[in-house]
Input
Amino acid sequence: MTTRRKFVRGIAASALAIASAQWTAAAPAANPVRIGFSIAKTGIFAAAAPSQLNAYELWREQVNARGGLEIGKDRRQVEFVMYDDQSNPSQAAKIYEKLVSQDKVDLLLAPWGTPTHIAVAPVLERYRFPMVGNTAASVKLRELKPGNIWFTTAAIPDRIGKELAAMLVANDVKSVALLTNVLPFGKEIKTFLEPALKKARIEIRVNEEYPPDIKDMTALLSKVKQAKPDGVIALSYPGDSPIYVRQAKELGIGAKFQFVLIGPAIDFFPKLLGSAADDIVTVGEWSPARNARAKAFHDAYVARFKERPDYLDSALAYLSCEILEQAVKSAGLDRNKLREAISKGSFETINGPVRFKGVENVVTQTGFLQLQAGVPQLVWPAALATAKFRPKTSW
Output
């Protein structure tokens, strides 16, 4: 009898242990933090989007490998909710409306490009949902004084106009041709660049605008060739920047200073164009040499994606995630507290300290990169430079 009781008790204990183990294994982990955004997987901005998305993915993988996003004393895994906005700003606005009102995401990351940031800004204001922007800058948004979007870049149009004119003067450029893609970023820069050039007594010999979907710049560049300026400034985007370089090479545009706004800092650009891309100047203020965090990001990106990061957009996208991560650590997911933390905080990033005044990063200096042997080097201002500027002497 005693033996039989012990046997029954043993079976009961085993069953209880198994049930307990099964319950423990099935116990749900903390819900992931859902972060929403749109990306230009298709359309005219699609050439630029991978460098932004890769930076987001790298950050998410690193955060999850550390145990998740730190929220107070807890850590939660990061999960993305992502849609293709087709390079259409109005579509992006609808997506962000859906992310907030239907998908109920916890946090937002930024889409690609100034037009898209401008389009989603009213959605952010309506829902009072904070978002750290990255691949965009707009004086117009500064003037509107929104409270839920911030620009991490130092490439603000009025600052670019002033600094680019100063760089031209420093390199004895006395005349330029100005070619402008009519998208908002290029148009805003032109607004400030023209008076800056006039003040610096730099002659504008050609001043033309063109549509975003341009396929042939031969007519524009024929005017440039005939005018023989010392410099060419193409306020272009990733889709049309390679067109400029190819056709400028074909026509033998001999300007010693050649500036291409968006594209040269992306790894595809020198791979696509080879030596023709050498000595092209572009906008950007980041380098792996900035600090230890920058070098670690660069190396991790190369190891993960087998290409170097975009010295402009990848860096901006990643550091916007760094800022969000640090703000969430101190403020949690409450939108009001998060807005306060971002607007008043100081953040350590792969581009050094960042602090905002209004919508702008007021710490980082506006800079310019130059492709040298296929690698972007900071050449302006002197305080940031990793190499000296080289005049473009041949294609």
User: Anything to note?
Assistant: The radius of gyration is 25 Å. The chain has a mean pLDDT of 92.
